Amino acid sequence: MSVDLAVRVLLADGQVGLVRPLGPADADAVLRLHTGLGERDRYFRFFGPMPSTVDKLTAKIAEAPGVGHAAFGCFIGGVLVGVAHYERAGSSADAEVALVVDGTQRTHGIATLLLEHLAAAARAHGIDRFVAEVMAENAKVIRVFAELGLRYRIDHRGPEWSVEIELDGEDRYPDAFVRRDEIAEAASLAHLLRPASVAVIGAGRRPGSVGRAVLANLLRSGYPGSVEAVHPVASEILGVRCAPSVARLSRTPELAVICLPAEAAANAVEDCGARGVAAAVVISSGLTGSEAGARVRESVRRHGMRLVGPNCLGVLSTDPSCPLDATFLARGPLPGHIGVATQSGGVGIALAEALTGLGLGVSALVSTGDKYDVSGNDLLLWWASDRRTEIVALYLESFGNPRKFGRLAARLARTRPVLAVRAGSGGTAQRAAASHTAAAATPAVTRDALYAQAGIIAVDTVAGLVDALAAISWQPLPAGRRVAVLSNAGGAGVLAADACEREGLTMAELSAETADQLRAVLPAQAAAQNPVDTTAAVPAAEFGQALQIVLADPGVDAVIAATVPTAAGDPSVALAGALPGLGKTVLAVRPGQRERVAPLNAAGPAGTACYDDPATAASVLARLAEYAEWLARPHDEEAPPEMDCAAVREFAAARAEEHEGWLSPAAAAELLRLAEIPCVETYYARNETEAARVAQDSSGPFAVKADAAGLLHKSAGGGVLLGVEGPAGVREAYRLLRGRFGPALHGVTVQPMADRGRELLVGVRSDPVFGPLVVFGLGGVDTDLLADRAARLAPLTGADADLLLDGLRSAEALWASGIDRAAVRRLLLRVGRLATVVPEIAELDLNPVAARPDGCRALDVRIRLERPAAGDPYLRKLSG
User: What pTM, to 2 d.p., does this model score?
Assistant: First the structure.
């Protein structure tokens, strides 16, 4: 079996192994694994002594994979250490599963990894359930089955227990993956961020070289471990012993940092792998797209190394137990609680400088560069178990596995803020828009849906990232969107109020008691309603009192305090003293300050962030409010809608196998029926006689719609005739459409006229990287003109459905019109479920959906199928 099918996996102890399908060439290795088992393991595997026919058994395990058979093996250092395989029971959807692991490797999670990969292969072949017979004494294997994360049942009667595992993964199955991934990543990335020894390969003698800068930073950081360098002729650099090659180092370093030209860097990676180095950081550029880059990937794969880069800034950690700066930053950042992952070295440098300027520190910074191995997903798992990291900042230009990223980010965001710069939206090219949904599902919309569902605080620029980091580092999250503006400059207050309303914040209505208290401390000419204008003559102390009065109002969730210095004093001086213990969000604005954002009190504790423009403060406050709302939503996922998933999958897979592309109207209507999605009764006719026969068998009047090549917007394109009466009318309608579209007309759909109600759009666009995106909006002929839509990635939770319903500009008026919101919500959840159950759906367009007070149903449907690329987005495997 070709090693090209192998995937790199992390074992529970952080080792890197390979998992791949087994074939006839592996028969000898499978036999060696079985014959090498200890006596007790043989007893559990064979329910007695090893049979004399073990060679035939192992040869069968290693048969070429097919519809009814598959086997996966796990290899460490090229040695087979575990096997899991299944045999299908005839033509049923059940398969018998068995597994065996080398007794010396049993604590590494190998059995679970193999079962995960085996289950993914089984699902792809239509197998719904694993069955197994297990000795009651075999507690370890029983625990593996029980902790897999899938529904299971064990029959405990007798000495041999029967186990049944349902492969139709529940939502908790990916969560089980994540828990196991966290353990493995914490062990694996410790080689990068807490190594016991480091070697810098390419540390130059010339001042200004990248390698020398990395070595100097490593020494300056106070790294406590062993440090060596590799240089072809120097005996020492910066007081550090040098060896002429990796092979001549005095010890095997746990981490190697490589700063060499591309070709030499590829050789160094191979030398490190051969020496047994656990992890490498390749700062070198020029590798990607070259033969040298391919060699780096192969070396990492073959030797089981972890790798950051190439083409990166490096890695650093401020952990006091193991400070490490393996970057070429001009100055190291302050120690702190912000974890930074950036694909761009330049962004990493800018962010480190900006945070240092604000007095904010980092817990770790990893520049992933071209991401041959370590990615943002790996670091999200690392930070989930790193208690020093309280805030995470991301700059990602591309996503290798966005669905896994979304689940990891959402899990992390429930315990600490995760912020990201919107970048890389052009990485997934949009195909030609063949439906209303496709026109709406741009890469930027898809990325923003991912961020919103994961609870990520998304900003547009690196400067915006710094703005938000400052606020969230120093202030609590707002309890709501009700904002009061307090200013000693009326113009600044008005600008702040306008900015708040633009950002979707609500100007709080101050109570009469609050207004009275403000009048008691402010000058007579002051405005005591929101926005509060204290006047320029107010002393600092009175401004501080006014702030405390406003914050005490129960109708206020947050305050933007805009101040300018005057001859009467500087009110910002009183802000820092008024902030402690208030428990509500306060952001300061000081128009004209030199810095875009600065700590309010540069001489002491920052207190809060102070911005140079009210619009910036309002934007940051809106992002914090969105995150607080996300945290407050229920995250318990409601049960997905009931659906005959097997029938739906079988129908769609058969149609995709027959012909990729747009389903016929009849087939599209049938798929909706199987998925229990409400749709108006639909009949298909290929000629005028069939059309007239429909009218004889059903009551009218009818809508007659053309099924013509290239006709997307049926109403606008003249493809819809409404109010057609009787067989003769339907026959004439067919003739009219045939004359209009000529040879392009394939047939017509005939539907009883329905009460249209409010016209909505519900659609799905599946992206090969991000998966299915559900789009909801206003429908009918004006859907593209109005472009009032919202989008969320499937699978949809109940909270996602609610956000779709409320995410339109017209939402308030729409739901006030009396249409059945609950029915539309059910439709969204059912469409989201269909999109995940049938990966063949590339596009689905329900437009219009007629929504009325008594329910909703689709009046027209278009569905395009494609055979999907194989793969499980949540399967545990490393990139490369």
Answer: 0.89
